[in-house]
Specification:
The complex is a heterodimer of chains A (313) and B (122). Chain A is mainly alpha-helical and 313 residues long. Helix content of chain A is 68%, strand content 2%. Chain A is built from 13 helices and 2 strands, in the order H-H-H-H-H-H-H-H-H-H-E-E-H-H-H. In chain A, helix 2 packs antiparallel against helix 4. The longest helix of chain A is centred in the middle third of the chain and has 29 residues. Chain B is α+β, with helices and mostly antiparallel strands. Chain B has 2 helices and 3 strands. The termini of chain B are far apart. Classes of the chains: A mainly alpha (313), B alpha+beta (122). Chains A and B meet through helix 2, helix 4, helix 5, helix 7 and helix 11 of A and strand 2 and helix 1 of B.
Chain lengths: 313, 122
């Protein structure tokens, strides 16, 4: 069977909504794109633990601390589901982790912003997880089976993350003058970076969009971003807070909210490594990996000893 | 012909825009722990179902990790783990030979048989 024929059969499967599984034939570019996207997604979950980990020891109550620990543990779990999905495409876990630590692989830029106050825990849950959910709900229908299955599991858990974030802000919004100010400040700082999470504008694309044709993605960046703005613009009213965008207003004719221009220069600066916390995040990951080396070695030595004992018995 | 995707999406940032310089100490031999497939029984009376995979040094650790990764919300009452290398899978390229013979045997299904409505509960 010729390559052309295989590609046609592959596209027919995609068009018929048949999922692609690890042992099925797939174009090399499909494999590479999925591998890159899934591993970046996994890295984002893992690095995403850091900004929140910052507040575990300083959570305002035992209840908030328990919730935050559970959320951070979920992020670790999400990273593991996704690494396992990426491994089905033929790259080892260790290689992926090495690529993250060397700076070769990317993760979502949002995690290169600092979490300065407790209100940031609320804003991260509501806005950052909220933006991620838009993307992830779409990805439960992605064409690569292992990725779609991981997404279904993640989406089930992610809903708790967003709700606890909103509730954290809701409590602050009903608090003292200082707490309300803290709430507004966190929204002000996280709003634009959250919008950037959806990536460049659709018009920035110069290439034919294979990602849509292969149904890896099903909605464009701008479609998802608009959906997010429409949702948040309504929810923010319940907090009695505002979004830091003077151009934000309901557009009757479009049936959507209009909103202002994103600072694309800042977007590319952070992607390129010049965000407020890029270095700090990677340093923290490398440190955790290096300082955990003895644990990994001890676990391996223990397993080897058990095996030897079993054989001897 | 291979098409390379240049369009940028969330979670799809190009390698070319790498921030950190590649460091040389990362080039070590691959020493991943073995891969295990995890099967979970969600409640008594139901089958164990494949939920995913993970790395662990041995079976005991695979069970413990599976507990943390796959049952944080009481998704299971029993876990099976098996090292992935022991799983033999059918070849997707042979799906035709394997499964098509069943396609033309509609008489294996109860709905194939037209019975009068008076025959109830059959």
């Amino acid at each position: 069977m010729g390559m052309q024929n295989l590609e046609e059969l592959f596209q027919q499967k995609i068009d018929k909504e048949v999922k692609i599984e690890p042992k099925d034939w797939m174009p090399e570019a499909y494999r590479k794109t999925n591998l890159r996207q899934i591993s970046q997604h996994a890295h984002s979950e893992i690095v995403g633990m850091l900004p929140e980990g910052n507040w575990i020891s300083r959570a305002p109550s035992l209840k908030r601390k328990a919730i935050l620990i559970a959320k951070v543990q979920d992020e670790a779990g999400h990273g593991l589901y996704l690494y396992a999905a990426a491994e089905t495409l033929g790259q080892s876990r260790e290689q992926m982790i090495n690529d993250l630590h060397s700076g070769k692989a990317k993760y979502s830029s949002i995690f290169n912003y600092p979490t300065l106050t407790w209100a940031d825990m609320g804003a991260v849950g509501w806005l950052v997880d909220g933006a991620a959910i838009m993307n992830q709900v779409m990805l439960t229908r992605t064409s690569y089976g292992p990725y779609a299955r991981a997404m279904v599991r993640i989406c089930k858990e992610e809903s708790f993350h967003q709700r606890q974030g909103f509730e954290t802000l809701l409590v602050l919004s009903k608090g003292s003058k200082e707490q309300r100010a803290m709430c507004q400040d966190a929204i002000n700082r996280w709003w634009w970076p959250a919008l950037m999470m959806f990536g460049p504008r659709d018009s920035e694309s110069t290439n034919s969009d294979m990602s849509m044709k292969w149904k890896i993605k099903r909605k464009t960046n701008d479609e998802l971003r608009q959906q997010f703005v429409d949702m948040i613009a309504e929810q923010v009213k319940l907090l009695g807070m505002t979004l830091p965008d003077p151009d934000l207003r309901w557009n009757e004719s479009r049936n959507h909210y209009d909103f202002g221009e994103i600072n694309w220069d800042e977007f590319w600066q952070v992607v390129k490594g010049n965000g407020p916390c890029n270095k700090q995040r990677l340093d923290a990951r490398r440190k955790a990996w290096e300082e955990g080396a003895w644990v990994r070695e001890a676990a391996q030595a223990h397993a080897n000893k058990q095996r030897t004992r079993k054989k001897a018995a | 012909m291979l098409h390379f995707i240049k369009k940028l999406y969330y979670g799809d940032i190009p390698d070319a825009n790498s921030g950190a310089a590649p460091s040389s100490d990362q080039q070590q031999a691959v020493t991943d722990w073995p891969l295990w497939e995890v099967f979970i029984r969600s409640k008594q009376g139901l089958d164990h179902k494949h939920v995913g995979s993970l790395h662990a040094t041995d079976a005991q650790m695979a069970i413990e990790n599976a507990r943390d990764v796959y049952t944080r919300r009481q998704e299971g009452v029993s876990i099976w783990v098996v090292e992935s290398k022991y799983i033999t899978a059918s070849n997707p390229a042979e799906a035709g030979e394997l499964y098509e013979p069943a396609a033309d045997k509609v008489y294996r299904h109860p709905t194939f048989y037209d019975l009068p409505d008076e025959v109830k509960h059959m």
